[in-house]
Structure formats: structure tokens, C-alpha cells
Write a structure and sequence with these properties.
The complex is a heterodimer.
Chain A lengths: L5 E10 L2 E11 L4 E5 L6 H8 L7 E6 L2 E2 L5 H4 L2 E4 L11 H10 L5 H14 L15 H13 L5 E5 L7 H16 L3 E5 L3 H7 L2 E6 L2 E6 L1 H6 L5 E7 L4 H8 L4 E7 L2 E6 L5 H11 L4 E7 L3 H9 L6
Parallel strand pairs in A: 3-8, 3-9, 6-7, 7-8
Antiparallel strand pairs in A: 1-2, 1-4, 4-5, 9-10, 11-13, 11-14, 12-13
Helix pairs in contact in A: 3-4, 3-5, 4-5
Chain B lengths: L1 H14 L1 H31 L4 E7 L8 H8 L10 E5 L2 H9 L5 E5 L6 E3 L5 H23 L9 H4 L10 H13 L1 H10 L7 H8 L4 H30 L8 H25 L4 H18 L7 H8 L1 H6 L1 H15 L3 H25 L8
Helix pairs in contact in B: 1-10, 2-7, 2-10, 7-10, 7-11, 7-12, 7-15, 8-10, 8-11, 8-12, 10-11, 11-12, 11-15, 11-16, 15-16
The chains are: A alpha/beta, B mainly alpha.
Chain lengths: 313, 372
């Protein structure tokens, strides 16, 4: 496909004086799983609502499947699936009826609808619960029903807005496996979450949003490489002199050494075998030390460095 | 697509226990309570209708040629099978004294080419009956004069075709109950619209992501509500007539027709309310409930003379209160049949439906919002 599946260009959305999305641009290619990260209120959900044409926006352009997205662009909408952050099903319908109802909004052919509904039930592992009403389902099963309703029509583009909130590890694992399967079957995925390890393990590309802007994007490795701190070595020791600390700072790639109680925290800005160089120095200087730990940066570190550590609303 | 949404909306509504309770069971329970309160009085009054004492005052004492006086006299004939009035033709001073002493329930004025008029001292069932009789006479007289079919002097009891089996004024409680039951559907409608609008619920958000034209969604949801409401009204009418054995003095289908129009007003007003209360969950409950109960109260659900009181103080309010118009249509239907006034009520109800639909469609057919 020559055109991007999604193209958002210089999107601006204001709520009165407050700017929610600030000249945000993004392109998503076919087959990608794009992770959209950002603190609360960073503009993720607003961007998705603009992308779906549920929200009016002040400026910019949104294209899906190479066509301009509008509220009545039914040809585009029939190939989009949405899994909402909150469970959005109908309490009065059984599991089967819920999935069949939402499927029927996209598919008019009855036989095809039946086939797709049964396939979505199998996909979500809800075969034993088809006659249950949502109120009788556990939190994990409800999430799976929510997903089944969003993907039943086999869309080409699926938006998952925090689908694993408040589910147990088993259900979370099943949901993530399901998303990988959908992607393998050809769906392009937009995935928002606050769980960094999920995004890191699932997404082929990550965009971090903050204050309505696209702050950084790339693969998890690329994002981590953008950090100054590439490795943190922690050493437990009883005592160390000022000269010895100064000596540690002279080791190649070490840019910061901090003493915190009986712990020495050494930060490196790249390079390789940093741990070996540090331990060799400690042995040479006959410094007694206990446990030594080396940590590589995580996506969480990237996220906190970019978005800051202060609490958000 | 319309049928798919309609089918599932019907399923949803028939499974909403609270909605069925308020739509079907509550009116039936209230009808039962009314029945035990004064059901026997209604049954007796239809068997032993007592003619209403009324005076007629004419300045020129020309009642012999005054068509209104002729009709009054015909309806006061003791030998006639259906006597509606006990008529006293007298001078104004005497009539006023009789009224003050509560010997009569009202004074009709007329003659000398003047529009007939009514004076009453207090509100009550007989006074309501007199007032509605006068209005019906004026409507019919105007119609005959306008069409040129008959001149004023030629209008007689036969041409006016008043029904001779007057309905008990206590039946107004049941008319108001039917109106309340019909308007309750505004609540049902608000709930139905909730599920198809992104501005109102997560379900609505998911729904609006689907390639379904909004007009189809709104119409399907409204149609489902109307079907549920008509079903509920039919049950209520059958219950009142079949189980409680109280007659509406009109055919079953014509009563269902009027109540169905009331149900459509309820559903379409709910569409309008869901637009007005889009952002407030509390308003979504309060608005339809307040609307239904206020309209029903003013139409006489709790106090039988309320409608007459409104008629004397603020007659326009009775014309824009759907419950009052509906009770009026049912009363007119039971008392006079399908006359001018009945059609006037039907037209008013249709206009109300058009207004509510316009507001509802204009607000609900939006597919993109400033804020959700």
C-alpha cells in the first residue's frame, strides 16, 4: 500500500482556552503496531477521537486509508475497529447478542455475520459464556467481550485504548496474544497504555505524547538510545575515599558517581563492558564491596525523562 | 440496517426491568388504585347520570329563536331519553343568586346575536362538563357557519350530534393516567438515545464509530420506543376496560389511536430532552420525570378540577400541555365522538410531535462533537 494507513498532519484541538492537541503529526504504515504513550491529559484519547471524527478539531488534516476522514465517511469506518478504554457493551444482551449486534452495524449479510460473530467468540475465548449477560462476567471476561465487540467485523485498522486496565495477568497475557494474532492476520494496530512493559513487548513503534505534542517516536531501542543514561551500576560498599570516587569518574563513559548511604550509584552514557571496567577499578584500589548490580534503561525511564516526574491530573 | 437496530433496540427495551416497571406495571397499579378509590362511582354515574343544573340568561328574552337556547332546551327535555341539563331560563339577578346558593352549577349567557358564554363559581366535575359542552357547541357552530352548511339559526341537537351517554367526569383521572403513562415513555426514549450518541455514553461512542447513518439510528431507536409504548398503552386500555370494567365510551381502536399519539409525543419529547440534557446524567432522569409529572398534574391526575382551573386562568397552557390535550381528546371522543374539537386536539398533538422530532433530529443527527 503506497499511502499510510493513518496520516495526521498538524492536528490542533482546543477546549476553550486549553490546547489539548498541539500541532500533532503522525503517520502509521500498514502492519504496524503503534504504541501511543503519554501521561494522563497528554492528548492521546483526544487525538484518537479526532482520528475517528467523533470530535471536531480546530486545525489540521486526518486521513485514514488515504482518504480524508469525516463523520459520514462510512467506507472508511467499516474498516476501523475500536476497543474502548471503558467497557462499552449492553447489559441487557447476552455475550452472543452483544457481539452480533455490533457486528450487524458493519455487516449486513446474515450468514457472514454469524460466521464472524462465532469467530470473534472463539478469538476472545468466550465459547463457554455465550448466553451470559455482562453482569455475570468477571472483569477479565468483560474486557475480552469488549474486545470481541470491537474486532468482530475484521477491521483493517484497530484502535485499542488501554484494553488491559484492571485485568489479571492471565487475561492480560491472553489479550496481548490476541492483539499479536490480529496483527499477524493483517490488521494495523494503534495501542495506548500506561503499562510500559506491555508497549515495549508489543509495539513495533512507539510515540510519546505530552501536552498535546508528539515528543518522540521510534522503536523501543531507539527511544532508549536517546537517553543520556545508558547504564546504571549500583555497588554496595562500606567506605570509599573522595580520591577513589574521582578515580571512578575518570573511567571511560562514566559521567556521574553518587554515594547514597552504603550504595554507590555510577551512571554511564554508553560504551560497553562498563561493569567490568568498574569492578576492575574497585579490585585494583582494594575497595571492599558487596553486591553489584547493573541496570539498562527501560521504556519507563525514557517516559519519565521525557514527560517529567511531577504528578499529572 | 434499520431492522437490525430496531430488532435489538426492542430486545433491549423489553429486557429493561425498570423501564417495564414504570411503563407497564406502574400505570396498571395506579389504575387499580383509582378504581378502588372511585371505580364504583364511575360505574354508577354512567347508569344514573344526573342532569347538570344550569341557568340560561338572555337579555332580550328571545330564547324561542336563539339556536343555543333551542339546543339547551332540547338537552333539558325531561321526557327525552338523554337529558343532560336541568335548565332554568331566568333573569341575570336570579341566575346569580341561584349560582351563589349552589342551586345551579353555571350560567349560560347568549341571545341577541352574541357568542354564548359561561360563568361558573367554582371548579368541579359538573363545571368541567358545562365548559366542555360550550366549547364543543362553539366549535361545531363555527364549523357549520364557516362551511355554510347551515346558518346559526338552523343548528339543532340533530346537527350537533351530541352523544347522549355522557361520560363520568371521574373518568378524567383515567384519561390523565393514560396521558401520564404515554409521557413516561420520554424516559425510555432518553435511555434509547443515550446508547447511540457519542456525546452521551461509551456505548454511544462505540456505536458512532460504526458506519450507520445517524438518522437511521435515531429513527430505529424511536420506533422501538413507540412500539413498546403502544404495546404498554394497549395493555393499560385493555386492563381498564376489560378487567376494571370502566368504559371510555369510545371504540377500543380510537382510544388506542389517541394514546398512541400521546406515546409518540412521549418518545419524541425524550429525543428532545436527550439533546438538552446531553451532558448531565441527573438531568436525563429529572427532565422527563418532571415533564411527565407536571403535565399530568396540570391535566388533573392528582386534582380533578386542575384542568378546569388552568382553563379559566391560563387557557393557553391547556393547549400546549400534551397531557391536557390528550385527556381532552379522550373526553371529547367519549362524550361527543369525533367532532371538531377532537380533530383540533389531534392536530395539536401532531404539531407537538413535529416540533419534538425537529429538535431531536437536529440535535441527535450530529456526528461530530466539540467535546465528548
Amino acid at each position: 500500500m503506497e499511502y499510510p494507513i493513518v496520516k495526521i498532519d498538524q492536528l490542533v484541538k482546543r477546549y476553550g482556552e486549553k490546547i489539548a492537541v498541539d500541532h500533532f503529526s503522525l503517520e502509521i504504515r500498514e502492519g504496524e503496531i503503534l504504541g501511543l504513550l503519554g501521561p494522563n491529559g497528554s492528548g492521546k484519547t483526544t487525538t484518537i477521537n479526532c482520528l475517528l471524527s467523533l470530535l471536531k478539531y480546530d486545525k489540521g488534516e486526518v486521513e485514514v486509508f488515504g482518504k480524508h476522514m469525516t463523520p459520514s465517511a462510512y467506507e472508511i469506518k467499516k474498516d476501523i475497529g475500536v476497543v474502548m478504554q471503558n467497557v462499552a457493551v449492553i447489559d441487557e444482551f447476552s455475550v452472543y447478542e452483544n457481539i452480533d449486534f455490533f457486528c450487524g452495524l458493519y455487516i449486513t449479510d446474515k450468514a457472514k455475520r454469524k460466521e464472524l460473530t462465532e469467530s470473534a467468540i472463539a478469538f476472545a475465548g468466550l465459547e463457554d459464556y455465550v448466553k451470559y449477560r455482562p453482569k455475570k462476567l468477571s472483569g477479565g471476561l468483560l474486557r475480552r467481550l469488549n474486545i470481541a465487540c470491537g474486532i468482530v467485523h475484521k477491521p483493517k485498522l484497530i484502535i485499542f485504548d488501554e484494553p488491559t486496565v484492571a485485568v489479571d495477568p492471565q487475561s492480560r497475557n491472553a489479550i496481548l496474544e490476541g492483539i499479536r494474532r490480529l496483527n499477524k492476520e493483517g490488521a494495523t494496530i494503534i495501542y495506548t497504555s500506561h503499562y510500559m512493559e506491555e508497549v515495549e513487548g508489543l509495539c513495533s513503534r512507539i510515540v510519546i505524547m505530552d501536552r498535546g505534542k508528539n515528543v518522540i517516536s521510534g522503536t523501543a531501542t531507539e527511544l532508549k538510545a536517546s537517553l543520556k543514561n545508558r547504564e546504571t551500576v549500583t555497588v554496595e560498599l562500606k567506605e570509599i575515599s573522595e580520591e577513589q570516587i574521582w578515580g571512578l569518574q575518570k573511567i571511560n563513559h562514566v559521567y556521574e558517581v553518587k554515594q547514597s548511604g552504603e550504595k554507590l550509584i555510577i551512571r554511564c552514557d554508553g560504551g560497553s563492558h562498563n561493569l567490568v571496567h568498574i569492578m576492575n577499578y574497585l579490585i585494583e584500589e582494594q575497595i571492599e564491596f558487596g553486591r553489584v548490580n547493573s541496570e539498562l534503561p527501560t521504556l519507563n525511564d525514557v517516559f519519565l525523562e521525557i514527560t517529567g516526574k511531577e504528578l499529572r491530573d | 440496517m434499520f431492522l437490525h437496530v430496531l430488532k435489538y433496540k426492542l430486545k433491549e427495551m423489553f429486557r429493561m426491568k425498570w423501564a417495564l416497571g414504570w411503563t407497564i406495571l406502574f400505570p396498571i397499579a395506579l389504575a387499580t388504585a383509582f378504581y378502588f378509590g372511585f371505580g364504583n362511582l364511575i360505574k354508577e354515574s354512567s347508569d344514573t347520570f344526573k342532569p347538570v343544573p344550569v341557568a340560561y340568561v338572555t337579555e332580550d328574552a328571545q330564547e324561542q329563536i336563539d339556536p343555543f337556547a333551542i339546543v339547551l332546551k332540547q338537552l333539558s327535555d325531561k321526557d327525552a331519553e338523554e337529558q343532560l341539563f336541568r335548565l332554568k331560563i331566568c333573569k341575570e339577578t336570579e341566575a346569580k343568586k341561584l349560582l351563589k346558593d349552589e342551586k345551579i352549577d353555571g350560567i349560560f349567557y347568549g341571545g341577541n346575536g352574541k357568542e354564548p358564554a359561561l360563568v361558573i363559581e367554582k371548579n368541579g366535575m359538573n363545571q368541567t362538563f358545562l365548559s366542555q359542552f360550550l366549547r364543543e357547541y362553539q366549535n361545531k357552530a363555527l364549523m357549520y357557519e364557516t362551511t355554510g352548511e347551515l346558518s346559526a339559526s338552523e343548528i339543532s341537537l340533530q346537527t350537533l350530534r351530541f352523544k347522549n351517554d355522557p361520560i363520568s367526569p371521574l373518568m378524567n383521572f383515567f384519561f390523565a393516567l393514560l396521558a401520564m403513562a404515554s409521557l413516561f415513555s420520554s424516559w425510555l426514549s432518553v435511555t434509547a438515545m443515550n446508547g447511540i450518541s457519542a456525546a452521551q455514553s461509551d456505548r454511544g461512542k462505540r456505536y458512532e464509530c460504526a458506519p450507520v447513518p445517524k438518522t437511521i439510528s435515531v429513527l430505529a431507536a424511536a420506533t422501538a420506543g413507540i412500539i413498546v409504548q403502544i404495546f404498554s398503552n394497549i395493555l393499560l386500555v385493555l386492563y381498564i376496560e376489560g378487567v376494571l370494567q370502566l368504559s371510555f365510551h369510545a371504540s377500543f381502536l380510537s382510544v388506542v389511536f389517541v394514546t398512541s399519539l400521546g406515546g409518540i409525543i412521549g418518545i419524541t419529547s425524550g429525543m428532545a430532552f436527550s439533546v438538552l440534557a446531553a451532558k448531565s446524567e441527573t438531568l436525563k432522569i429529572v427532565l422527563p420525570l418532571a415533564f411527565t409529572m407536571t403535565c399530568s398534574f396540570l391535566s388533573g391526575l392528582m386534582v380533578d378540577s386542575m384542568k378546569q382551573f388552568v382553563e379559566t386562568k391560563m387557557p393557553l397552557l391547556n393547549k400546549i400541555n400534551p397531557a391536557a390535550v390528550m385527556t381532552d381528546a379522550l373526553y371529547t371522543l367519549g362524550t361527543y365522538g369525533t367532532g371538531n374539537r377532537y380533530y383540533q386536539d389531534i392536530i395539536i398533538m401532531i404539531v407537538m410531535i413535529i416540533v419534538f422530532v425537529a429538535v431531536g433530529i437536529a440535535g441527535l443527527s450530529r456526528r461530530s462533537y466539540d467535546n465528548i
